[in-house]
């Protein structure tokens, strides 16, 4: 098989070859070529030692030279070139204690995680597939190279990567690999929170986030996120629901933000929306009650869920921007819109205009995961809320202090004293404008302010 590869990758492989060394594109980029996808990164493996790579190329950076990796700089582009290597003993279920270099490509490919990631390619030799990667791509399965138990003992993160690749590619996990995951899942306790966050996020933003169920079925979530297990095991006896908390969550996650190809949301928004739906009912198992009506209720799960979500995201080392957005949406995910112009203005003022479109998407996904017999009216109400909000935006109606046609400086200039009371006064004026947007004029607001006694 012949593939088109970037000219700079071809140049690096060719230059190494001209100097007497073997060189191939390797790993995920080859997998993506076979699948007809555009590779995001290009990794190159070679029989040349790091010092030889540095000698051949003028501009290099020693990014991981202890493990045989040199980054070659071509114009503004960077390419990692790694010497064929053998990994030594893994002492922490993640990193080898030491590595040694080898002259054999087969030995380098043998140490890799899955067969679909253990193929190499160069324009002269074509695809080098020594472990059945092509066959597994054709069968759409994720299978470890060699003994899966050994691969997971070497690097426990591979357990999560198996599920993540399954989600990204729509592949099934091969049975022996699946069995080994069940046995070795506890090793994930040795993996850093940052690495777990990265893999979970890639799974969530994929087009098959329902593979979250695999985390539960194979005992992975019990180790890294036991809250998912509790959700999967919590029923919802309620006219609004037809599924357990966990199954409802998985259905909602699968709906929110749509398919990645639709590009309705930015990558940042997609991440926020998927994590919001994953965590939105996280506290339902701990707030479940049985009412006199014979129905389950989950009073306070929104606020408690926001607190738990915040702690989970902190533990996973999320950036503050993502954390704050997800926590905010979890807190407000169950908001009941009052379907009037004033009700929508009030909602936008409480929730924030920057979150309203996201919250509508959350609301749609949440409803989609409920009892399909009882959600027609909910969808109609959501559409009406969106219509009223769009009208509010068209009319440029004020819903925040920064949109008021009067400021603290204006009030001070008119003789009002600065301090805590001024903040209360401005909020009174905002409430008045939310009631009647036509009064958002400085002169009118000054007159109203003079009649308010705080």
Question: How would you portray this structure in words?
Answer:
By secondary structure, the chain is an alpha+beta fold. The protein folds into 4 domains: 1-136, Beta Polymerase, domain 2 (2-Layer Sandwich), CATH 3.30.460.10; 140-224, Hydrophobic Seed Protein (Orthogonal Bundle); 255-397, no CATH class; 401-451, no CATH class. Helices cover 51% and strands 11% of the residues. It has 23 helices and 13 strands. Strands 3-4-5-2-1-8-9 form a 7-stranded mixed sheet. The longest helix has 19 residues, at 376-394.
Q: Outline the biggest β-sheet.
A: 7 strands, mixed
Cα(first) to Cα(last) distance is: 79 Å
Instruction: Please tally the helical runs, counting DSSP H or I stretches of 4 or more residues.
Output: 23
Report helical residue fraction: 40-55%
Overall pLDDT confidence: 95
Task: Give the strand line-up of the largest sheet.
Answer: 3-4-5-2-1-8-9
């Amino acid at each position: 098989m012949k593939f088109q590869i970037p000219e700079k990758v071809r140049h690096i492989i060719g230059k190494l070859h001209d100097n007497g060394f073997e060189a191939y594109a390797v790993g995920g980029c080859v997998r993506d070529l076979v699948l007809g996808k555009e590779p995001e990164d290009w990794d190159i493996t070679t029989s040349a030692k790091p010092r030889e790579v540095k000698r051949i190329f003028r501009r290099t950076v020693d990014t991981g030279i202890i493990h045989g990796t040199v980054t070659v700089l071509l114009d503004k582009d960077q390419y990692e070139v790694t010497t064929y290597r053998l990994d030594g003993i893994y002492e922490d279920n993640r990193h080898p204690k030491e590595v040694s270099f080898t002259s054999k490509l087969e030995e380098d490919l043998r140490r890799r995680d899955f067969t679909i990631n253990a193929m190499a390619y160069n324009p002269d030799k074509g695809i080098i597939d020594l472990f059945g990667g092509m066959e597994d791509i054709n069968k759409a399965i994720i299978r470890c190279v060699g003994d899966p138990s050994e691969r997971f003992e070497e690097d426990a993160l591979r357990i999560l990567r198996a599920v993540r690749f399954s989600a990204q590619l729509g592949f099934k996990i091969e049975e022996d690999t699946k069995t080994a995951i069940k046995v070795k899942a506890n090793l994930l306790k040795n993996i850093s929170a940052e690495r777990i966050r990265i893999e979970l996020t890639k799974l969530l933003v994929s087009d098959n986030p329902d593979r979250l169920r695999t985390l539960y079925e194979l005992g992975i979530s019990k180790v890294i996120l036991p809250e998912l297990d509790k959700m999967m095991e919590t029923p919802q006896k309620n006219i609004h629901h037809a599924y357990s908390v966990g199954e409802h969550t998985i259905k909602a996650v699968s709906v929110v933000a749509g398919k990645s190809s639709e590009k309705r949301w930015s990558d940042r928004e997609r991440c926020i929306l998927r994590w919001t739906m994953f965590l939105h009912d996280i506290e339902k198992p701990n707030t479940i009650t049985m009412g006199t009506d014979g129905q389950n209720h989950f009073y306070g799960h929104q606020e408690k869920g926001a607190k738990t979500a915040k702690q989970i995201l902190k533990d996973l080392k999320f950036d503050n921007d993502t954390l704050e957005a997800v926590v905010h949406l979890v807190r407000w995910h169950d908001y009941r819109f009052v379907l009037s112009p004033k009700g929508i203005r009030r909602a936008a003022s409480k929730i924030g205009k920057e979150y309203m479109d996201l919250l509508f998407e959350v609301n749609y996904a949440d409803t989609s995961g409920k009892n399909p017999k009882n959600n027609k009216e909910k969808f109609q109400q959501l559409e009406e809320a969106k219509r009223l909000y769009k009208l509010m935006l068209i009319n440029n109606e004020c819903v925040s202090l920064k949109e008021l046609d009067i400021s603290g400086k204006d009030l001070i200039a008119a003789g009002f004293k600065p301090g805590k009371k001024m903040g209360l006064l401005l909020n009174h004026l905002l409430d008045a404008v939310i009631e009647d947007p036509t009064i958002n004029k400085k002169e009118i607001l000054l007159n109203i302010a003079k009649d308010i006694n705080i």
